[in-house]
Amino acid sequence: MAKVLTSRKENYAQWYNDLVIKAGLAENSAVRGSMVIKPYGYAIWEKMQAQLDRMFKETGHENAYFPLFIPKSFFSKEADHVEGFAKECAVVTHYRLRNSEDGKGVEVDPTAKLEEELIVRPTSETIIWNTYKNWIQSYRDLPILVNQWANVVRWEMRTRLFLRTAEFLWQEGHTAHATKQEAVDETRQMIDVYAQFAREHMALPVIQGHKSENERFAGALDTLAIEALMQDGKALQAGTSHFLGQNFAKAFDVTFANKEGKVDHVWATSWGVSTRLIGGLIMAHSDDNGLVLPPKLAPIQVVIVPIYRSEEQYEAVVAKGEEIRKQLLKHGISVKFDKRDTQKHGWKFAEYELKGVPVRLALGMRDIENGTIEVARRDTLKKEVMPMEGIDEKIVALLDEIQDNIYNKALDFRDKSIHYVDTWDEFKDTLENKGGFIMAHWDGTAETEQKIQEQTKATIRCIPFDNKQEEGKCILTGKPSKERVLFAKAY
Amino acid sequence: MAKVLTSRKENYAQWYNDLVIKAGLAENSAVRGSMVIKPYGYAIWEKMQAQLDRMFKETGHENAYFPLFIPKSFFSKEADHVEGFAKECAVVTHYRLRNSEDGKGVEVDPTAKLEEELIVRPTSETIIWNTYKNWIQSYRDLPILVNQWANVVRWEMRTRLFLRTAEFLWQEGHTAHATKQEAVDETRQMIDVYAQFAREHMALPVIQGHKSENERFAGALDTLAIEALMQDGKALQAGTSHFLGQNFAKAFDVTFANKEGKVDHVWATSWGVSTRLIGGLIMAHSDDNGLVLPPKLAPIQVVIVPIYRSEEQYEAVVAKGEEIRKQLLKHGISVKFDKRDTQKHGWKFAEYELKGVPVRLALGMRDIENGTIEVARRDTLKKEVMPMEGIDEKIVALLDEIQDNIYNKALDFRDKSIHYVDTWDEFKDTLENKGGFIMAHWDGTAETEQKIQEQTKATIRCIPFDNKQEEGKCILTGKPSKERVLFAKAY
Question: Which residues contact B413 (CB under 8 A, 6 or more apart)?
């Protein structure tokens, strides 16, 4: 069968785009920069959502919903935030259309102009802190631990399916605390939750750390991030958690009386992950044959394909397949039995390989006679004929094994791709010829970071937690440095 | 304790608004017509979503996500649809802000004007059918059974929390079929799903039927609805399912080759329910003391309140309460143990009554000595001291009993509120003095329906399924009629 994908080696960006389209995950829409998330792609998002939502609730958070629109003036209230967010955004200026004079269409009704324009939320700190103002009077009202699942819009000029789209789906946590320490701890707790989710569910090892000032969220005092490595050696920021200090409380005048009756501003955090994670999931694990999905996030974990030559055989094989399907369902495995007789089994094999279904079971007459079944793993592409007896238990174990294997493969690749360099030439050479993460010394200034980016396109991805302290010299300026930081080219 | 709510008798609208605010369900936001759904209100929506989503998937549907923005020109493509939807809507005209010259804020950048304005979706038929065009070539691509959970915006002039807001959350199913009959069956199936959901989960009896032409969805050939009765005698349309014929397929040129190779336009349905359901849930069951929530949708099904006079007693009572909490959790009951020592138990009783928690357990020293516990039902406000032994099983049964009781009470009220009238005077008198549903003859014309509405504010809620055929005369015009239709004043 002809390969349907451009290979990664040939053109990684093209491979990614082909894969997203051909596996039926998403496509571009009629609206510039906005994508349609197709059912198979959305099913991955639903699995991500369900698990993240569980983890948020286990850590004491509740969901709520805040308005899509934000009054323009709100953006001017926090000085840094306005610089970062109030620029490329969708602006609602009118609230009515009318029939056009030629009778052929509709046009904006100029008399229905809003007094104050509304911005389609690019993130919700402003509207939420304006709301919290009414919720918080005393320390008894704190903490507020709220999350929102929502769509947001940022008018990106260059978009790529899942990775960067004008509209995307995400969750944004917004918490309010009585003390600085509590907010700092929350910020850390949530980046740990994201790291655990990436590791255990996405099979994606990540490096956690602080962002440099340049890369910080607009309005934050500290931004924590998880950074993952893609197969082309570029980094992907997969989630961020921000310590906002009292900036938004001051901008929106949110104060509380503490236990001693003293009035103070409230401390804040915000944190989010988005449908971008799906892009990261695809780029981290998939191969030239198609998607490779970790079982914990795969919409279909096991597919059963019947193999037959006659109607009689079809009936026998389907009856047996149905038995196996029911056995697997009892274990909570999501299983698809593709009984369609409009497609040949070879076509189905290729289809589920492309779609990254972790385990494929094929069942023919010989299997029924011998009490066997063919088990194929998507991660290794290996096939094995196994006894039918106890197959359900074996599949349960195999799914765990595949999950672990995908993780270990990504971990191994990531670890091999962390390079320690000490000179500017080495830095440029590594970036150009090897890619991956680079641990290097930096003088700690925004100017130097800026220059490095201009000359190499590499940015500081993070300053890892528990970073080893060691004396060194900045790769660009030669000025003294106390620790290495993590550089990479990034999505 | 002073009553915190206006009574229903005094002012039903005020009672409703007080209740939504004071029970912490939702509040108005800084954006005209947009609400903030607070955690307790959102938790009800999550329970509704989870159950509806299960029912959609059991009937073969998948979720997907389509763009928030719709190009203005799309609305002109379906003639009826444009009349109904392209009027009061939010229009995005620009995509950038810039710093204002006075340096104090931001303003719309006039150079960043969109060539074609984008409409924030009021409903998604147009963008979805524009997408389906690319998904459908042959009968093998059909049916498409897709649902979307999303926010939509309709620029309403008079808004009320949950019942009518500019932005609201909903689900919209959009299906595509090869035959008319299949689409007609799907339309009916989904209104049946909604009716079942209302009955079994919301404890809300509904009348199902066809909308009259006046009340039909813009672009539909037939609209089916479920109509519920609120305690003030007004009807609430709680869900609709539309048979769209080939209108959208024709507007967006979506054709397919059938089994015989003949090309035809695709048949369509769409169906939706929204956060409005929360308004209906509140208005159908709650009383002057607060919310009354059916156990199946209550965020907290059981609350345990400890009663004590000393720290020693507190510890004993809390230890026992913890045991009971764990027992209940094993049955999958969502239970809150309110151990806070910052609030008295009387305050807690009032709070959970206001919040509609179906069962309240109170536990004091005497209970521990006697092996008993006090069980209070929110629906009947009755209290009973029960043996602690086997209390978990009793609570499981009690929750079912409460669910049934709330339903039966609403059913009884609804049935008593259906009036059969034959004359215009009787019609007006019933509307004015009794309210409720009125079954009356109508001559079948849009003009008459319009006149009835102008004179009485009553509309035809639906023409019930399996409606009894009987000869009669239109209450307004005296013209012959073959069946009664269901009238009411409505939200």
Answer: B229, B231
Instruction: Examine residue B322 and state whether it is found in any structural domain, yes or no.
Output: yes
How far are the Cα atoms of A90, A122, A315, B90, B176 from residue B108, in angstroms, in the given order?
Answer: 10, 16, 67, 16, 41
ipTM: 0.96
Closest residue in A to B127 (Cα–Cα): A30
For B9, B289, B341, B373, B430, the CA distances from B231, given in Å and listed in that order, are: 10, 15, 38, 34, 16
Q: Determine the straight-line distance between the first and last CA of chain A, rounded to whole angstroms.
A: 33
Domain boundary (B261, B285, B309) is at: B285
Q: Which of B215, B216, B194, B214 is nearest to B206 (CA)?
A: B194
Rg of chain B in Å (alpha carbons): 26
Q: Which of B241, B266, B285 is the last residue of a domain?
A: B285
Cα distance between residue A458 and residue B91, in whole Å: 39
Burial label, A384 (beta-carbon count in 10 A; 0-12, 13-18, 19+): exposed
How would you classify residue B164: left for phi > 0, otherwise alpha for psi between -120 and 50, otherwise beta?
A: beta
Residue B83: the pLDDT is 76
- Residues A36 and A54: their CA atoms lie apart, in Å, by 26
Chain B 330-369, CB below 8 Å of chain A: which residues? 342
Domains: count for chain A: 3
Q: Report the CATH number at residue A258.
A: 3.30.930.10
Burial class of residue B85, CB neighbours in 10 A (0-12, 13-18, 19+): buried
Q: Do B155 and A37 touch (CB under 8 A)?
A: no
Are A251 and A361 in a shared domain?
Answer: no
Q: In this structure, are A59 and A147 located in the same domain?
A: yes
The answer as to whether B435 is a domain residue is: yes
Closest residue by Cα to residue A119 from B69, B116, B96 = B96
Contact status, residue B344 vs residue B383, Cβ threshold 8 Å: no
What chain A residue is nearest to B25 in terms of C-alpha separation? A64
Hey, is the C-beta of A196 within 8 angstroms of any chain B C-beta? no
- The pTM for the full model equals 0.97
* Partner B contacted by A66 (CB < 8 A): yes
d(CA A359, CA A292): 11
CA dihedral (B447, B450, B452, B455) positive or negative:
negative
The pLDDT score that the predictor gives to residue B102 is 80
pLDDT (tens digit per residue) in A86-136: 679 999 999 999 988 887 788 999 999 999 999 999 999 999 999 999 999
Strands A480-488 and A263-265: unpaired
A138 and A267 co-located in one domain = yes
The range of the structural domain enclosing residue A67 comes to: 12-73+120-285
Q: Which residues pair with A91 in a beta bridge?
A: A119, B94
Q: Residue A2 pLDDT more than 80?
A: no
**Tokens found for residue A373:** 């079944």
First to last CA, chain B: 33
B131 touches chain A (CB under 8 A): yes
SS3 percent helix, strand, coil of chain B, rounded to 5, is 35, 30, 35
User: Does the CB of A57 have a partner CB in chain B at under 8 Å?
Assistant: no
Residues 6+ apart with CB under 8 A from A16: A160, A279, A282, A283
Q: Check CB contact under 8 Å for B95 and A73.
A: no
Six token digits for residue B201? 């989960």
